[in-house]
Design brief:
This protein has 171 residues and is of the alpha+beta class. The chain is built from four helices and seven strands. Strand 6 (71-78) and strand 7 form a beta hairpin. Helix 2 runs antiparallel to helix 3. The longest helix is centred in the C-terminal third of the chain and has 30 residues, at 118-147. The radius of gyration is 21 Å and the shape is elongated. The two termini are 42 Å apart.
Length: 171
């Protein structure tokens, strides 16, 4: 699971499909970073709370994630002070259901045919891995959003902070 932060302005949105009140999948989101570079995020899944804020011209800090099987924007802190966190975690429901169905299939096959379906075991293992990976991804995204105050620190400001810290520690 990886998280990233984009400081900049949303310049272009290519709409994809949407399930009202569930999620929106954008084909691409194009950002003009504060340093002048451009970043394009493809196939991004977002919850409605975030989708409402993703409009061309929206400027601020955008929090992105990449999980096992999806990627998206999980948080936004706009320059106007608006701050929203919403992680799309539909897989937390999907993986346990998939695991339960496969476990039932394995048990049924063991009792009726005296054999263990290897495909069932593989899918069960993948569903267990997927569930815990999604939980870990969601926890990392929440931690990233909660611990970040939204302030932008430039490289020159970092140098000043280091100089002030070293001067203070010498006295």
């Amino acid at each position: 699971m990886a998280t990233s932060i984009i400081d900049g302005t949303l310049t272009e949105i290519v709409a994809g499909r949407s399930m009202k009140n569930k999620f929106t999948i954008y084909k691409s989101l194009t950002f003009q970073r504060d340093d002048g570079s451009t970043e394009v995020l493809k196939r991004q899944v977002v919850r409605p709370e975030i989708a409402d804020l993703l409009k061309p011209g929206a400027s601020g800090r955008f929090y992105a994630f990449k999980a096992v099987d999806m990627k998206g924007v999980h948080g936004v802190r706009l320059d106007d002070g608006t701050s929203v966190y919403a992680y799309h975690a539909s897989n937390l429901k999907l993986f346990p259901i998939l695991g339960a169905v496969n476990l039932a299939w394995i048990v049924l096959m063991v009792f009726t045919r005296d054999s263990v379906p290897m495909l069932g075991v593989l899918v069960l293992a993948l569903s267990i891995f997927g569930f815990f990976a999604t939980r870990r991804s969601m926890a990392a995204a929440k931690l990233q959003f909660d611990t970040d105050d939204g302030s932008v620190v430039t490289s020159s400001a970092k140098g000043i902070a280091r100089a002030v810290t070293s001067t203070a520690s010498e006295t």
